[in-house]
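Handout, section B. The chain below has 233 residues.
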Amino acid sequence: MRLFNAEDRANLRPGQPAPLYHQLYLVVKRKIEGGDLRQGALLPAEKDIAAYFSVSRITVKRALDDLEAEGFVSRHRGRGTHVTYKYEPKVLRAPLDNMLDSLAVMGRETQVRLIDFARVTPPPQVAEALRISNDTLVERAVRVRLSEGLPFAHYLSWTILIGPRPGRGGAEDRQTRLDLFRGLGIHLEEIDQVITAIAADSTLAQRLVVRIGDPLLQVTPSLRTSATGRSTT
């Protein structure tokens, strides 16, 4: 199912305090608010969503009912379920130097835990953001950053292969990407960031030690470097 992936499916976990329909609601809502499901997009049929996530059609219907009640989708017999929420990021500009200084300080004063690292082909929306073909290998890393042993940020990064890089478990796992790029002689030229509010799904709740549905701030940056003109998101 192209609109959803294995990570989305893993976010539905029976036995959690939040019922399955609400977990599914959060998965779909996050994709809509993040721009992965754009206005006018047609969602799969209830039976197909139920089969993909291994839940009942009643669970799917309850999740879609809640999304419709909040204005995220519209449902019409014979025409299916369409996204009605319009994703419109607002553009704000700020000096790059202050942001880089803040990143450098964060890298020195916090710790990082590597969850996953692999070289993979990116999903279509990531390939589009990086301006590469869908079959180009990129580095996908999942990290949690901690302060005094307590998690406060969850990172998912997609980086174009640039220069010689050590494998998983090297010193780079504890670096910010800013330090990593500087070590390779690469300088950031521009950072675009999309900031949205989301609700924690089961994976984020577990890794950040919060409750499912708790509000989180999601920052989606796109970094342009002197090496490639666009390298990471």
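Note. Residues 96-225 form a domain with the Chorismate lyase fold (CATH 3.40.1410.10). Compare this with the example in section A.
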